[in-house]
Design goal:
CATH architecture of the largest domain: 3-Layer(aba) Sandwich
Largest sheet: 7 strands, mixed
Number of strands: 13
CATH superfamily of the largest domain: Vaccinia Virus protein VP39
Structural class: alpha/beta
Strand order of the largest sheet: 5-4-3-10-11-13-12
Radius of gyration: 19 Å
CATH class of the largest domain: Alpha Beta
Order of helices and strands: HHEEHHEHEHEEEEEHEHEHEEH
Distance between the termini: 64 Å
Strand content: 15-25%
Length: about 280
């Protein structure tokens, strides 16, 4: 009991250094066995999370480890300039947060790209409900309850590693009606949800191995996106080749590749972004 209490105090102290004084309430709520708590964290602001689940760790990854901040200054500035040009042209930059969990990354993207529209795609109903709550104060975020995949259909869900909420896995059963309870959205489906001129700006993918499905079908959208952030899961599914279709789809398309935390970041070159911007202007 003493060791557990000391570990809890250490976690609370570390969290307070990052998130502010209110962060101690999360660890206290966990020790008291509370199922859910609403508190204020420096960075995202007011959040609702489950103290005993992986929820706070998602905020640590996003705001402490800054895993969605592009580590290369040249690439980061290049992407920001492209974003600014889209906005100046009256085009809405579209960000798809695939595997949004409870909304931490969506909050990050919404604050860093306030003129973008973020579609936070999350298959688990409980996670999606918290994502809606946590992003309610950001008008540029829409929570889409469902999975993302390479073709339409439905999937079944199951707990993943350690049965934590950030590890929900999805799998297709078959293509017959009623097979799986969770609707699958394609990237094209999601693009059609945005009215008016828009451009696919960034796609963040953390979908627990289902990236094998996403990149195994229609990948034409890859030629239109400025950046892709993806966490691969070969480590979680050995000998399942979950990254093979992703490798075939991305590694021969001229992206620059950076690494940030658990993510591979595929960033378009200046030449590609200029070409994409010209194409967008011609369409309007």
């Amino acid at each position: 009991m003493f060791t557990e209490t000391r570990q809890a105090l250490n976690r609370a102290c570390n969290d307070m250094r990052v998130f502010g004084m209110h962060a101690w309430r999360v660890e206290g709520a966990r020790l008291m066995g509370r199922q859910q708590i609403t508190t204020w964290l420096r960075g995202p602001g007011e959040v609702t999370l489950r103290p005993a689940d992986s929820d706070l760790e998602t905020y640590r990854q996003v705001y402490l480890q800054r895993q969605y901040e592009i580590p290369g200054a040249f690439q980061r500035q290049r992407l920001e300039r492209y974003y600014d040009k889209l906005v100046a042209d009256g085009v809405v930059p579209l960000i798809i947060d695939a595997g949004a969990n409870i909304g931490a990354a969506a909050q990050w993207f919404a604050d860093h790209f306030p003129k973008a529209h973020i579609l936070a795609v999350e298959p688990d109903p409980a996670n999606a409900a918290l994502c809606r709550t946590n992003t309610a104060g950001r008008a540029n975020v829409t929570t889409v309850e469902g999975a993302i995949g390479g073709k339409a259909g439905a999937v079944a869900m199951a707990p993943g590693l350690g049965e934590q909420s950030w590890a929900i896995t999805t799998a297709r059963l078959d293509d017959s009606p009623g097979a799986g309870s969770c609707k699958v959205h394609t990237v094209r489906d999601l693009q059609r949800q945005i009215s008016g001129p828009s451009a696919l700006f960034l796609v963040k993918i953390d979908i627990e191995g289902f990236e094998a499905d996403l990149f195994d079908h229609d990948v034409g959208w890859v030629d239109e996106v400025a950046a892709i952030f993806i966490e691969t899961h070969d480590w979680l599914f050995p000998d399942k080749s979950t990254s093979q279709s992703m490798q075939k789809s991305l590694f021969n398309r001229g992206f620059e590749i950076l690494v940030s935390g658990e993510n591979l970041m595929f960033i378009r070159s200046t030449v590609d972004l200029d070409r994409m911007l010209k194409s967008t202007r011609q369409i309007q």
